[in-house]
């Protein structure tokens, strides 16, 4: 479903949650995270 996941970050708590979610998706679909 996903090959690459782009995760923009700004150091906020919401960005940390987004990173956690992106890691979960990447593990599930074998995707690469781009930050």
Structure commentary:
The chain is of the alpha+beta class and 35 residues long. It has one domain (4-34). It is 49% helix and 17% strand. It contains one helix and two strands. The protein has one helix spanning 13-29, and strands at 4-6, 32-34. The chain has a two-stranded parallel ribbon. This is Universal stress protein. InterPro entries: Rossmann-like_a/b/a_fold (IPR014729), UspA (IPR006016). Residues 1-33 form the UspA domain.
In short:
The protein is an alpha+beta fold and 35 residues long. The chain is built from 1 helix and 2 strands, in the order βαβ.
Largest beta-sheet details: 2 strands, parallel
Head-to-tail CA distance between termini? 19 Å
Fraction of residues in β-strands: 15-25%
Given the helix and strand composition, which structural class is it?
A: alpha+beta
> Number of domains in the coordinates?
1
Listing every helix as H and every strand as E from the N terminus to the C terminus, the arrangement reads EHE
- Helix coverage percent of residues? 40-55%
Overall body shape: elongated
The number of distinct β-strands equals: 2
Helix count, per DSSP? 1
Give the C-alpha Rg: 9 Å
Mean pLDDT: 94
pLDDT < 50 stretches: none
Reconstruct the topology from this structure.
Blueprint lengths: L3 E3 L6 H17 L2 E3 L1
Parallel strand pairs: 1-2
Pfam families: Usp
Protein name: Universal stress protein
Organism: Halolamina salina
